[in-house]
Each structure stands twice: as C-alpha cells, then as structure tokens.
TrEMBL record:
<dbReference type="GO" id="GO:0005525">
    <property type="term" value="F:GTP binding"/>
</dbReference>
<feature type="binding site">
    <location>
        <begin position="145"/>
        <end position="148"/>
    </location>
    <ligand>
        <name>GTP</name>
    </ligand>
</feature>
<comment type="function">
    <text>Increases the formation of ribosomal termination complexes and stimulates activities of RF-1 and RF-2. It binds guanine nucleotides and has strong preference for UGA stop codons. It may interact directly with the ribosome. The stimulation of RF-1 and RF-2 is significantly reduced by GTP and GDP, but not by GMP.</text>
</comment>
<dbReference type="InterPro" id="IPR053905">
    <property type="entry name" value="EF-G-like_DII"/>
</dbReference>
<dbReference type="GO" id="GO:0005829">
    <property type="term" value="C:cytosol"/>
</dbReference>
<keyword id="KW-0547">Nucleotide-binding</keyword>
<dbReference type="GO" id="GO:0016149">
    <property type="term" value="F:translation release factor activity, codon specific"/>
</dbReference>
<dbReference type="InterPro" id="IPR038467">
    <property type="entry name" value="RF3_dom_3_sf"/>
</dbReference>
<dbReference type="GO" id="GO:0003924">
    <property type="term" value="F:GTPase activity"/>
</dbReference>
<dbReference type="GO" id="GO:0016150">
    <property type="term" value="F:translation release factor activity, codon nonspecific"/>
</dbReference>
<dbReference type="InterPro" id="IPR009000">
    <property type="entry name" value="Transl_B-barrel_sf"/>
</dbReference>
<keyword id="KW-0963">Cytoplasm</keyword>
<dbReference type="Pfam" id="PF00009">
    <property type="entry name" value="GTP_EFTU"/>
</dbReference>
<feature type="binding site">
    <location>
        <begin position="91"/>
        <end position="95"/>
    </location>
    <ligand>
        <name>GTP</name>
    </ligand>
</feature>
<dbReference type="InterPro" id="IPR005225">
    <property type="entry name" value="Small_GTP-bd"/>
</dbReference>
<dbReference type="InterPro" id="IPR035647">
    <property type="entry name" value="EFG_III/V"/>
</dbReference>
<dbReference type="InterPro" id="IPR032090">
    <property type="entry name" value="RF3_C"/>
</dbReference>
Length: 534
C-alpha cells in the first residue's frame, strides 16, 4: 500500500462529510433535509424536496413503482456544499418503501443524524435503524424536532433516548419553552440565544441571534420575560447533571450530541449544521477481509452498497451506487472488478445533486458515484486499481416478512429461477429454498419489496408470479463450529431450514418465541441477524 503524500487528497477527505438521516416516518426527516439543502444552496425553493413525497404513496402498480424509483434515485444521494465542506446526504427511505436499502445505506455513511419528534419520543423505526448504526458504532447527532408543539419536556426526551436507545445524551443547545411558549434556543457552548419566530424562513443569523455571555445579563429578562429565570435554572441544572459533550465518545458512538428545534420553521437547524460540519467525522479507514484501508491511500478503492434497477425503461440498465473509500476517482479510469476477475471502465459515472444527476469527472473518498451496468454488479462488490480487496460490513439483514412464490406461468420455472437469483444479487429481495421442499420463499425487510419483485419478474423475465402466505416471521443465519452438532441440528430441524442464494443455511421460525425455544435447546449453534455479502 502507498500512503499518498498528496495534500490534495488529504484536503478533499477532510472537507467531506457523508451521512444519513434516521427517523421514524413523520418525525420531520424530509423537512430537515429540505432545510439543510436550502442552507447548502442546493435548492432555492422550499417545497422542492416535499414534492417527491407526494408521489410516493401512489398505487404500487409497476409504472408507479418505476416512477417512484426515477424520483427516488435523484434523491438517493444529495450532494451540497456548506461553508468549505462537501456534504453527501444519503437518503434512507422510510415509510412504505422501507426496505433493506434503508439499512444498507447506513453501511456507506460516516455518521448519522437522528430526528426525534418531541411529541412522540423515540419510535419503532428509529430504534431499528439505530441497531444498524450500532453495528459499526456510527456517530450519531440528534435533532429533537417540533418544539413549536406541546410535547415531552427536553429532559424527558433525553431520558427516553438514553433508556430506549442506550446512548448517552449531551445537549449542545437548550430550548426556552415549548409549544405556544416556545421562545428560542440557547446554545450552551457558544453562549448564544436565538429567538424563535414562527414561519421565519430567513437564513440570516444576525436577525435572530443575541450573544449572551453571562446568563445574569438583564437583557435576558427583557427578551424572555419570566422565562429568563426558567432558562437560568435549566442551565444551572444541566451544568450539574447533564453529560458534558465529549468528542471521543460521540465519535465512538457512545454519546449523542442533542439539538432542539423546529425543522418546519427552520429553527435550530443551522446550529446543528454548524456543529455537524465541525465535529462529524470525515471519511475514515475501512475494513476489508485482508486489511484496513486508509482513505488517503493513493490507490483507488470503493464498494457497492445499493443497486437501482431499470430506472430508464428504454435502457433497462442498472445503476450501482459505489462509495469511494480511498484514492481519487476519475472518469474513464479502468478498475478491477475482483469478484468476476474483470476490468471495467468507469465511462459514465454519475453523481447526484439535490434534484439532478450529472456526469462526474473526479470524486474523492466519501463521495458516492453511480455506475451503469447490465446486471454484473452485486451488492458488496469491491473495485480497486489493482489490489484484490473485499470490503466487509455490507451485510444482508434478516428479513421480517415472508412470502411463498407461486408460479402462474408453469413453463417459466427456469426464468423464475434466473430472475430471483438476479433480484437477490441486487439486494432487491432475499430468496430462500427450504432444504426439504422444492419451493421459493422470499424474504424482505419492507413489504414493498414483494410488489417490486413480482412486477420486475413480469417486466424483465416475462414470468407471472404471485404469492402465498408462509408460516414464518423470523429468519436467522445459523453457524456452528462443532460439525457433529451442526449435522444433528440440520437433521432434527430440517423442516425449518432453508438455503439462501449464497447457499448459507438459514433457520426460519414462526415467531420469536419459537426461535428462543430453539436457541435455548441448541446453545452451540449461533443464530445471526445479519450475514455478510462475500
Ligand atoms: P418525514 O416523514 O420524517 O420525512 O416527515 P416530514 O418532514 O414529512 O414531516 C412530517 C409532518 O410534520 C409534516 O406535516 C411536516 O410539515 C411536519 N413538521 C415537520 N417539522 C415540524 C416542526 O418543526 N413542527 C411542526 N409542528 N410540524 C413539523
């Protein structure tokens, strides 16, 4: 390996921030995204991000899925500049289209921002996404949203986060009041008070900010009236009781800095963005099966974390999203596609702007580049200049929904086979074959994946298929070092065992209770929620 002396490479790495926003539907992710893009100048008009959402809930016939994809691809990665930073915001689809992609995107980010609705506290989907962040100890910043509504008190929200998500909270800003009495945000570290005005869309800080270096300053009483004393009391309490912010703990993923605000009113967002660019990590080293690769190594490397199929009906090609991990990427460069032992030329690489995609001439670690292909690229594939590397940490996630495939066009079983293999390689759906039954069971994290699979089987492989229900709701990959025990396990549990498309053994259970029971009876066997692509 050659560590580059190129100061350009180092500079480009240091100014990059690649992150995703995690939240439960309706907490305010789209609204926050839009405000961030406004600050970055990537969009000029409020409502630009919203518009894609309106079409998201269209009926799930093939064309609308196709259309949704066309829309969602431009918004899959949003690149914008803020101060001297280049920010890549990766969309983690929520709502109905919640899928494995949502999880997998998080393997390609360096940090995440978690949005919590102050009225509802921590919700289910946030909890699940947080579990995925935990796998790589991804640093997480928290934005507590909707302070303009009557919700939980700031302390209650923080203790909910700490208890439910098992992560320490360190407030960096503090709200003055909430709901109708919401007056503003006090920046604990910069000692600035920003006053709230509903519907105020100005981006000019000087309109709203007052520096308060000493909380006993009588100006505070003029500005906040009786709430001035409440703020004084809160800050005094925090100084004694709250966790002080610790950069190392944040970077390790054990502490989350917390910001309070109201995304729809563009309030508290700038404070978070300013702290984000300053403290969120730039692209760091990443593990491969053989060694850890530093981003400033001269040799180019990257891996594919998402594949989007057939976005253009006329071309039927697939777009693979590659995260650059080291070196400089250049348009037209030849790279090794190690899994299939071929060289490929990066002839039409695409980057994604807020509302557009365009060809890219060069890109750097942390950037996401889209490469066109005709089905040869698989999730997890690694590309490099020369060295045969395979990045790790791009797993499959145990599906939560299952369907049995019914072939309605009986002569097409070969095409069905081929189509399902292809779809599983793209990560669109997981395919299981029970070891004692000649059927296909599909597994998905989000149910929309099933609609997409059937629609694509028809459109691309001319296969008419539909679904029957299955008795399963839980899957775990199974491993055991003791081969004898494993053979015994396979023999007695064969009715619940299946192979995935990579021939890995999977245990399918009707529910968590059944799974627990089997786990207790087979302590030598590991039941895994994730499985690495290799
Ligand atoms: P997403 O599903 O997480 O992307 O959430 P959205 O950004 O679409 O927001 C869901 C709803 O909450 C929308 O009606 C927003 O207008 C509203 N919303 C977002 N931020 C705020 C806020 O700060 N205060 C209030 N009251 N509503 C908000």
């Amino acid at each position: 390996m050659t560590v580059s002396n190129s100061s350009e490479l180092k500079r480009q790495i240091e100014r990059r921030r690649t992150f995703g926003i995690i939240s439960h539907p309706d907490a305010g992710k789209t609204t926050l995204t839009e405000k961030l893009l406004l600050f970055g100048g990537a969009i000029t008009m409020a409502g630009a991000v919203k518009s894609r959402k309106a079409s998201r809930h269209a009926t799930s016939d093939w064309m609308s899925i196709e259309q949704e994809r066309g829309i969602s691809v431009t918004s899959s990665v949003m690149k914008f500049e803020y101060r001297d930073y280049e920010i890549n915001l990766l969309d983690t689809p929520g709502h109905k289209d919640f899928s494995e992609d949502t999880y997998r995107v998080l393997t390609a980010v360096d940090s995440a921002v978690m949005v919590i609705d102050s009225v509802k506290g921590v919700e289910e989907q946030t909890r699940r996404l947080m579990e995925v962040c935990r796998m790589r100890n991804t640093p997480i910043m928290t934005f507590v949203n909707k302070l303009d509504r009557e919700g939980m008190s700031p302390l209650e929200v923080m203790s909910d986060i700490e208890e439910t998500l098992q992560i320490e909270c360190a407030p960096l800003t503090w709200p003055v009041g909430m709901g109708k009495g919401y007056k503003g945000t006090y920046d604990i570290y910069r000692k600035k008070l920003t006053l709230f005005r509903a519907g105020f869309e100005s981006l000019r800080e000087q309109d709203m900010v007052t520096e308060i270096s000493d909380l006993s300053d009588p100006r505070l009483d003029e500005l906040l009236g009786s709430q001035a004393d409440d703020l004084r009391g809160d800050v005094e309490l925090l100084e004694g009781a709250a966790n002080p912010f610790d950069l190392d703990d944040y970077l390790k993923g054990s502490q989350t800095p917390v910001f309070f605000g109201s995304a729809v009113n563009n309030f508290g967002v700038k404070e978070m963005l300013d702290s984000f660019v300053e403290i969120a990590p730039c692209p760091g080293p990443r593990k491969t099966t053989t060694r850890t690769v530093s981003p400033d190594e001269e040799e180019f490397s990257g891996f594919v974390f998402k594949i989007q199929a057939n976005m253009d009906l006329a071309h039927r090609d697939r777009l693979a999203f590659m995260r650059i991990c080291s070196g400089k990427f250049q348009r037209g460069m030849k790279v090794k596609h190690h899994r299939i032992g071929k060289d490929i030329t990066m002839s039409n690489p695409t980057i994604f702007m807020a509302q557009d995609r365009e060809l890219v001439d060069e890109a750097w670690p942390g950037d996401i580049v889209g490469i066109h292909n005709h089905g040869t690229i698989k999730i997890g594939d690694t590309f490099t200049d020369k060295e045969p590397l395979q990045y790790t940490g791009i797993p499959s996630f145990a599906p939560e929904h299952f369907r049995r495939v019914r072939l309605d066009s009986p002569m097409k079983s070969k095409q069905l086979h081929k189509g399902l293999l292809q779809l599983s390689e793209e990560g669109a759906i997981q395919v299981f074959r029970p070891i004692n039954d000649n059927i296909f069971i599909l597994g998905a994290v989000g149910v929309l994946q099933f609609d997409v699979a059937v629609a694509r089987l028809k459109a691309e492989y001319s296969v008419d298929a539909s679904y029957d229900s299955t008795p399963y709701s839980v899957a775990r990959w199974v491993r055991c070092d003791d081969l004898k025990k494993m053979a015994e396990f396979e023999k007695t549990q064969q009715n619940n065992l299946a192979k995935d498309s990579a021939d890995q053994l999977v245990y399918l259970a009707a529910n968590n209770w059944d799974l627990k029971y089997v786990e207790n009876h087979w302590p030598e066997v590991q039941f895994l929620k994730t499985c690495e692509h290799s």
